[in-house]
Amino acid sequence: MLLLHNTIVLALLLGGGVGLVVGLSGAGGGVIAVPLLVFGLNLPVRNAAPVGLIAVGIAAGVGAALGLRQGIVRYRAAALIGICGIAMAPAGLWLARRIPNQPLMIVFSLILAWVGIQTLRRTLSPKTRDMELCATAPCRTALSSGRFIWDLPCARMLSLTGLLSGLLSGLLGVGGGFVIVPALTRYTNLNTQSVIATSLGVITLVSVGSVAAAAVGGGIAWPVAVPFAVGAVAGMLAGRLIAVRVAGERLQQGFAVTCLIVAGLMIARVAGWLS
Fold it and tell me: I need a surface site. Which of 98, 108, 166, 190 has the fewest CB within 10 A?
C-alpha cells in the first residue's frame, strides 16, 4: 500500500513537470514525459509511451481550449495536421511493439538532439534572416483576417508535418509537438503564442489516436496514467500563466535546451552511465 501511495505521489509530481513544459512551449511534454517515466518510475519505453500521451493529450486539450477562447488557434491547420497524425499513429505503434527498448531510446535521443540544435540555431540567427523566412514561408496569414492563405504548398507542408508527428507519436509516445512547433515556426509566419496554441490543438488530436490504439492493445498502466495526467493538467495551467509573461524567443531557447538535456540523459542511460 505504501509503495502504491509513493508511486501515485511521484506520478503527480512528474506529471506536473510535464504539464509545465507543455504550457510554456506548446511542445516537449511528451519529450520529457517518457524519460521521466523511464527514469522516475522504471517503466520501459513501450509502456511509458501511452501513459505520457494520455497526460500530454489531456493537458494539451485544456491549453488548446483556452487558445480557442483567445482566438489564437489556427484550427483548420490544426485539424489537417491532426487528421494526418491520427492516420499515421497506428503505424508508429506497430513499429514500437517490434523494436527493442534500447534502439527506441537511441532513436528518441537522436531526434531530440537534432530538434534542439535546429531550434537553438534558429533563435540565435539574425533577425533579418527570420524576416526573410517569414516572407517566403509556404504558409502565410492574410493581414485582414489573420487566417492562413490556403494553397498547395501550404497544405502539403501541414500534411507532411502531421504524418511525421503521428508516426513519432505512436513510435516514441510523444504528442508530436517537438516536430509541430519547429515546423510551424520555420514554415509559417505565425507568432509564438499562436504557434504554441495551434500545436496544443494538434497534440490533442494526435494523442487521442495513439492512446486509442494503445488501449485496444491493453498496453496502458492506468494506476500511473491517472495521477500523471492530473499533475500534467495542473502544471499546464501554471505554464500558460507564465508563458504570456516570457518573450517568445526565450521560450524557444528553453525548449531547445530541454531537448538537448533530455537527449543527453537518454544516451547516458543507454550507455550504462545512469542506472
Answer: 98
Distance between CA atoms of 231 and 15, rounded to whole angstroms?
4
Quick check: 29 and 22 in contact, CB under 8 A?
yes
Cell 485582414 -> residue? 144
Contact between 34 and 52 under an 8 Å Cβ cutoff? The reply is: yes
pLDDT at 26: 66
Expressed as residue numbers, the domain containing 266 is: 2-271
Cell 537522436, residue? Answer: 110
139 conformational bin, left if phi > 0, alpha if psi -120 to 50, beta if neither: beta
pTM of the model: 0.76
- Residue 90: CB atoms within 10 Å: 18
Q: Are 109 and 158 in contact (CB under 8 A)?
A: no
Phi, psi of 148 (to 5 degrees): -65, 145
179 burial class (0-12, 13-18, 19+ CB within 10 angstroms)?
Answer: buried
pLDDT tens by residue, 17-64: 888 887 877 665 767 788 888 888 888 877 887 888 888 888 888 888
pLDDT digits over 138-162, tens only? 898 887 777 888 999 999 999 999 9
Phi, psi of 188 (to 5 degrees): -135, 170
Q: Which residue has the cell 504554441?
A: 196
Confidence of residue 230 (pLDDT cuts 50, 70, 90): very high
Nearest of 37, 5, 96, 30 to residue 269 by alpha carbon? 37
Residue 235 C-alpha from the chain's centroid: 15
Number of independent structural domains in the chain: 1
